[in-house]
Structures are given as C-alpha cells and as structure tokens.
C-alpha cells in the first residue's frame, strides 16, 4: 500500500471507503443521527469536507492498495481559509436538511475548541480505513503520513484530533498523541488529543 495526495478523481472511491469506515462511528452517529438514510448522510458529509479541502489545497491523503483506495485522511494546515462559495451553499442545504444538526455540531465544536492547542497546528479531522483491511498496519501508516506532512511545516507545532472511540484512544497514544481534554457528546465521550513536533532548527 502507498499513501498519496488525493485528486478530484479519487472522490467517489474515497467516499465509499469512508462510509464503510464510519458506519458505526460515535461522532458521525451523533452528528448525523444513525438510522434510515444514515449512509447517504455520511457520504454527503464527507463529500463536502473533501471537496472543500481539496479546493483549498489542504491535506487530503488516500491509501491505495491492490483493490484501490482502502483509506483516507484529511484536515487542515495551520491556516483555516474560508470555504469556496459553491461548497458553502451545498453545506447550508445539507445542514438544514438534518433536524438538530446545527445544535449538535455546535456542541461538538465547543468541546473541540477547548481541547485544541493554542499554538499553530495541523488538524486531522478525518481518518478512516476500510474495515476489511483492519489489522494490516494501514492505519498507522496513513496516520504517520499525515503527521509527516505537519512535521515538515515550520509553522506547525503538531497534530490535533478528536475521537469518540475508546479503542482509537489507545491507537493514537501508541503513535505519540496525548489526551488534552475529555467531553461528553451525547451518550459518548469525546477525547481531544495532540501530538507535538520537535521544534524546527535553523532559519
């Protein structure tokens, strides 16, 4: 398997992978309300995030295996530019189509804001591996690839993320992340985590 930057032609295949990866995820389950139509809502949600980040040249990575795309990760650099108008219009329609979504997202953002570091950092908003490929070391490889991009940026102090899956906490801790805050997200616990980089030397 190898990890590369995603291109627009990777969108559909990446979305199919992420829908499988997040079928039982506590965060998307809370935000998008598991039940009828959930898979479609997850696909729309990640489509908007991926389209926006690719348009802004933010980090969007895909893991490619013999069967095609088996994992994806995306987030932000130290910058958080405004989304393109075409995506924000689609986001507004998506947000209004899900009852209570805005309130649940506001709660999520409130917790995350308290847990993130005050120094400039990269944000790993999404990372997922096709469930049929678990246990093969793909998750650590994809995570390392994102962290390496951050470590190569002189402006970045490290990588920040959130998870509501207890087993993921142990996974991230083994990769060097530390818990910065715990919050309550519906019936789940939300862990905010950060991995710092060594300071850059030289000019």
> What's the total number of strands?
7
Overall geometric form: globular
Strand content: 15-25%
CATH class: Alpha Beta
CATH architecture label: 3-Layer(aba) Sandwich
Query: What is the distance, rounded to the nearest whole angstrom, between the alpha carbons of the first and last residues?
Result: 35 Å
Major sheet details = 7 strands, mixed
Domain module count: 1
As for the CATH topology, it is: Aminopeptidase
The proportion of residues forming helix, as a percent range, comes to 40-55%
Trace the largest sheet across and list its strands. Answer: 1-2-3-4-5-7-6
Look at the structure and name the CATH superfamily. Answer: Gcn5-related N-acetyltransferase (GNAT)
Topology:
Layout lengths: L1 E4 L5 H11 L4 H7 L5 H18 L4 E6 L2 E9 L8 H13 L3 H15 L6 E8 L8 H14 L6 E6 L2 H9 L3 E8 L2 E9 L7
Helix pairs in contact: 1-3, 3-4
Descriptors for this entry?
203 residues, alpha+beta, Aminopeptidase, seven-stranded mixed β-sheet, 7 helices, 7 strands
What does this structure look like?
With 203 residues, the protein is of the alpha+beta class. It is built from 7 helices and 7 strands, in the order E-H-H-H-E-E-H-H-E-H-E-H-E-E. The longest helix is centred in the N-terminal third of the chain and has 18 residues, at 38-55. It is globular and about 45 Å long. It has a 7-stranded mixed beta sheet, sandwiched between helices. The termini are far apart. It has a single domain (2-196), classed as 3-Layer(aba) Sandwich (Aminopeptidase), CATH 3.40.630. Helix 1 (11-21) crosses helix 3. Helix 6 links the parallel strand 4 and strand 5 (158-163). The protein has helices at residues 11-21, 26-32, 38-55, 85-97, 101-115, 138-151, 166-174, and strands at residues 2-5, 60-65, 68-76, 122-129, 158-163, 178-185, 188-196.
């Amino acid at each position: 398997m190898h990890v590369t930057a995603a291109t627009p032609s990777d969108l559909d295949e990446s979305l199919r992978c992420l829908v499988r990866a997040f079928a039982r995820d506590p965060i998307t389950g809370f935000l998008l309300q598991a039940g009828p139509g959930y898979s479609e809502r997850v696909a729309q949600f990640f489509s908007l995030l991926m389209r926006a980040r690719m348009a802004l040249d933010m980090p969007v990575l895909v893991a490619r295996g013999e069967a095609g795309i088996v994992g994806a990760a995306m987030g932000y650099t130290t910058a958080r530019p405004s989304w393109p108008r075409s995506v924000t219009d689609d986001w507004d329609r998506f947000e209004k189509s899900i009852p209570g979504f805005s309130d649940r997202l506001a709660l999520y953002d409130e917790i995350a804001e308290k847990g993130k570091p005050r120094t400039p950092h990269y944000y790993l908003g999404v990372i997922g591996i096709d469930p049929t490929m678990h246990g093969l070391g793909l998750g650590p490889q994809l995570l390392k690839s994102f962290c390496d991009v951050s470590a190569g940026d002189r402006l970045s102090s490290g990588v920040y993320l959130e998870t509501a899956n207890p087993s993921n906490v142990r996974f991230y801790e083994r990769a060097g992340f530390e818990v910065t805050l715990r919050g309550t997200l519906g019936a789940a616990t939300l862990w905010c985590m950060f991995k710092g980089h060594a300071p850059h030397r030289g000019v």
